[in-house]
Amino acid sequence: MDKLLSTTSSSSAAAADSGGVLPDCFVFPADRRPPASSTAASLPVIDLSGPRDAVRRAVLDAGKDLGFFQVVNHGVAEETTREMSAACEEFFRMPAEDKAAFYSESEENPNRLFSSTTYESGDRRYWRDCLRLAAAFPVADHTKFHWPDKPHRLREVAEKFFVATRGLGIELLRLLCEGMGLRPDYFERDLTAGDVIINVNHYPPCPDPSLTLGLPPHCDRNLITLLLQGDVFGLQVSYNGDWINVDPVPNAFVVNFGHLLEIATNGVLKSIEHRAMTNAAVARTSVATFLMPPMDCLVGPAEELVGDGNLARYRTVTFREFMRIYKTVGARRESVEKAFRI
Fold first, then answer.
1. Whole-angstrom Cα distance, residue 86 to residue 93?
2. Distance of CA 251 to CAs 85, 226, 294, 332, Å?
3. What is the radius of gyration, based on Cα positions, of the chain?
C-alpha cells in the first residue's frame, strides 16, 4: 500500500485496490478488535448558559465521575463550527495532488497531513487520516502560512476556530478552578502557554469495521480537549469495563480531560480512555482542539490540593519529560498512570 497522500484516503484507496476487502495491515488480532458495547449509559450534556453555580457543579461532577461530558450553548458561534466542518471535509475531498505537499511522517513537523496514527501499533495501522494544525496564541500570520492554502478560506476559518475553542477551553478550566478552590487563572499561565493544536480526523468508510479501529484506546496527553464530532457516530468512552457510545448532539462539543489535568489536580479529575470506531456506510470527520503547555513547563499537583493529610499522588516533571515517557510507555491509561504515580 502506498502510504503517501492520505487522501480520501490511503486507507480507502487501499480498500478500493483490494476489491473492497480490508487490507491485512489494518486487521487486528481478535483480542484487540472492537467488541460490541453493551452499556446504555450516556455522557452528561451540560448547558453552559445556566446559572454559574449550577454549571460549575455539573462540570466538576462530570470530571470526577466520567472525565467526559458534552457542552451546549457554549459561546462558539454555530457559523464558526459549521464553516470549520465544511472546510475540513472539503480538504479531504480534494485530489491527492493538491494535498501531497502537506503529507509528512515526521512528528517534529507541527503542521502536517499523515495517515494511521501516532500511537504505537507495531505493524498494524488504524483507519484514520489526520490533518494537524498548530499555533501559538494569538495566531500569527507567519503561522498560518504553514497551513494548507486549499480549500479557499481554510486558513481564515481555522483561525476563527482556534480562537473560539481555546476561549471555551479556558472558560471550562476557570469553572474547574472555582469548583476546586484554585485561583481562577491557575491554568492560564504556563499550563496553557504552549501551542493550541487542532487534529482534523478523517475516517473513510471501512470495508469491515469489526476488524479494525479508527483510533486505539488512549488517554490524552494535554490538559483539556474539545471535540467537534459532527453528526456521524464514532467516539466511544471507557466506563466500568465497557464502552459508552457517544451519540452526537447538535451544536455540542465533547469535552475530556487529559492526563496533565489529572496530575495537576492530584487525581481529583480523571483522564479516561477513549477510542474511535469506523463504519461501512459514510465517512466521518471530527475536529479536536488540544490546549498544551510549553515543553519546559513544570507539571505537578497544585499546592492547594496537597496537604492536610492529602499526599501528592504524582511526581512533578517537565512537559518534555512527560512526553518522552508518554511516548515510551504508550498512551494507555494504566501505563501512563503507573509511570507518574508516586
1. 11
2. 11, 13, 31, 30
3. 19
**CATH number for the domain harbouring residue 282:** 2.60.120.330
| pLDDT tens-place string over residues 256-314 | 999 999 999 999 999 999 999 999 999 999 999 999 999 999 999 999 999 888 899 99
**5 pLDDT band (50/70/90 cuts)?**
very low
Q: Is 317 helix (H, G, I), strand (E, B) or coil?
A: strand
Interatomic CA distance for residues 148 and 159, integer angstroms: 12
Query: b/e per residue, 94-112, with b = 16+ CB within 10 A?
Result: eebebbeebbeeeeeeebb
Q: Number of folded domains in the chain?
A: 1
Task: Give the DSSP per-residue string, 258-306.
Answer: -HHHHHHTTTSS----EEE---SSS-EEEEEEEE---TT-EE---GGGS
What grid cell was written down for 275?
A: 477510542
What's the half-sphere exposure (Cβ side, CA atoms, 13 Å) at 6? 25
In a domain, 36, yes or no: no
Percent helix, strand and coil across the chain, each to the nearest 5: 35, 20, 45
C-alpha cell belonging to residue 23: 487490507
- Residue 72 main-chain phi, psi, to 5 deg: -125, 165
Cell of residue 226, nine digits: 474539545
8-state DSSP, 36 = P
Reduced to 3 states, what is the DSSP secondary structure of residue 177? helix
Q: Is residue 13 part of a domain?
A: no
Q: Which domain holds residue 170?
A: 43-296
DSSP E strands in the chain: the ranges are 45-47, 68-72, 112-115, 129-135, 196-203, 215-218, 224-228, 235-239, 242-245, 253-257, 274-276, 284-291, 298-299, 317-318
